[in-house]
Task: inverse folding
């Protein structure tokens, strides 16, 4: 398989080198204990980066909105202890100034892919951007969102396919495997797959994660929680530690068949 990405360095992790990177963690950072336990476990099992929402854009305004700035100290502490880089969603340009010291890459979420003023702000900073596909965005619109970042001078872009809304309601979204292969073919950017939001069902996540790797993805952004049933967001699509361990056991075998390997941290 051709790996023509321009690798992007995110802290101690290189995304798009040809090796497969796993970015794992909870949908939301909920507490020091929850984030520490998750980060420690996913690192032990081979993750090379941490994810965790701080500012959550929830459909229901009464749902948990994330710890926001309150979680900065938690993240700094855990990142230091575990020694992995961290990515989190930026929802408001006013937060960039403080959040830039906490994250190793800014995530632009599905709901904000079309937020061109946010993209313009992010285009002038020296930090990688994990650009998720809008759930109703065409491939072309996703690429044009990336162009906003490039136009402002930031080409440290990592694309992330996270599923799109279709007529199908049996799964939360329809994971667009075509988009993985097409993005690898037509862009120089590394491409991550998010099988958690792509399916919305924990039991489907490992299959779609493996399928994305087979389609050429550079890695995964995946939700893992110590106790998914009690998660404050997206528990139904989060893997518990045994399920994540099982996926981490299977993934190298699939990669091997494609002359690829799991990535290690620097
Ligand atoms: C997330 O990664 O937690 C998230 C909110 O994803 P998306 O923007 O793809 O819905
Ligand atoms: Mn989530």
Result:
């Amino acid at each position: 398989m051709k790996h023509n990405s321009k690798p992007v360095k995110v802290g101690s992790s290189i995304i798009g080198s040809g090796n497969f990177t796993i970015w794992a963690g909870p949908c939301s950072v909920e507490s020091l204990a929850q984030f520490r336990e998750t980060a420690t476990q996913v690192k032990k099992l081979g993750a090379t980066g941490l994810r965790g929402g701080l500012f959550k854009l929830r459909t229901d305004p009464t749902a948990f909105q994330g710890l926001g700035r309150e979680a900065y100290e938690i993240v700094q502490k855990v990142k230091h202890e575990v020694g992995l880089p961290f990515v989190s969603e930026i929802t408001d340009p006013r937060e960039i100034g403080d959040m830039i010291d906490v994250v190793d890459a800014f995530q632009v979420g599905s709901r904000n892919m079309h937020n061109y003023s946010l993209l313009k702000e992010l285009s002038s900073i020296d930090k990688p951007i994990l650009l998720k596909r809008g759930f109703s965005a065409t491939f072309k619109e996703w690429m044009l969102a990336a162009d906003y970042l490039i136009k402002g001078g930031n080409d440290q872009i990592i694309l992330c396919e996270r599923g799109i809304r279709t007529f199908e309601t049996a799964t939360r979204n329809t994971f667009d495997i075509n988009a993985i292969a097409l993005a690898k073919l037509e862009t120089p950017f590394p491409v991550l797959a998010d099988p958690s939001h792509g399916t919305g069902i924990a039991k489907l996540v490992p299959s779609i994660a493996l399928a994305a790797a087979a389609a050429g993805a550079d890695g995964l952004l995946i939700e893992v929680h110590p106790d998914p049933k009690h998660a404050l967001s997206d528990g139904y699509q989060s893997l518990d530690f045994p399920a994540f361990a099982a996926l981490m056991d299977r993934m190298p075998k699939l990669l091997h068949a494609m002359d690829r390997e799991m990535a290690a941290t620097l």
Remarks:
- Residues 241-257 form the longest helix (17 residues).
- The pocket of manganese (II) ion (ligand 2) is lined by residues 27, 197, 223, 233-234 (CB under 6 Å).
- Residues 60 and 233 are 11 Å apart (CA to CA).
